[in-house]
Design goal:
Blueprint (H helix, E strand, L loop, with lengths): L2 H26 L7 H19 L8 E4 L2 E4 H7 L13 E2 L6 E2 L10 H10 L4 H8 L5 H5 L7 E2 L2 H11 L15
Antiparallel strand pairs: 1-2, 1-5, 3-4
Length: 181
């Protein structure tokens, strides 16, 4: 494997690990209506919260502006075969050493607080409600989306501004011990 391919694979593995954490957390709390659309929005919210709380990226995959809101293309591609149906599996990646598929898990160096808050505060909502939330007037998506053009990268600076404004509205979940379970 070439160096660039290895770097892309490492990038995807961390993104897939974060995704699997979200999917497993939602399922653990009895939330099974996880579609690609819903997953994209919860993933975006977790990314924005993490960026705001810890001043670092949750993963290296880019956030893109698409017609239905922000998406992580690596995850969209990974679950595209589900269409608008329920996701019933976890994300998988290829181990570059063995060539075998595996389900990436969250590394100990990732603080799951933002993930837990995103799942608790937004996981029970329907996908279309999350689309509305991620496309509001003050969203990074709104600032970067170009009508008819998918794939415009949403800069982290814009995501930070969006979530700095939203953080007080979800502050009640910071002290909620439920999200630790």
């Amino acid at each position: 494997m070439q160096q660039k391919q290895l770097e892309q694979l490492e990038c995807e593995v961390r993104t897939f690990a974060v995704t699997n954490y979200i999917v497993n957390k939602l399922r653990k709390h009895g939330i099974y209506d996880i579609t690609n659309l819903k997953l994209q929005k919860v993933l975006y919210i977790a990314y924005g919260l993490h960026l705001c709380l810890f001043e670092q990226r949750l993963f290296e995959s880019e956030i893109q502006a698409w017609r239905l809101g922000p998406i992580v293309y690596d995850i969209y591609r990974g679950f595209k075969q589900c269409g608008d149906g329920i996701i019933t599996t976890n994300a998988t990646a290829i181990d570059p050493k063995t060539g075998e598929f595996f389900e990436p898990q969250l590394d100990a160096d990732i603080n799951p607080r933002a993930l837990n808050i995103a799942c608790t505060a937004y996981g029970q909502r329907i996908a279309w409600n999350l689309v509305d939330i991620t496309q509001d007037e003050n969203s990074a998506w709104k600032k970067n989306y170009i009508n008819g053009k998918n794939g415009v990268i949403i800069p982290d600076a814009d995501i930070s501004i969006e979530f700095e404004a939203k953080i007080s509205g979800i502050a009640k979940y910071f002290s909620n011990e439920e999200y630790h379970k």
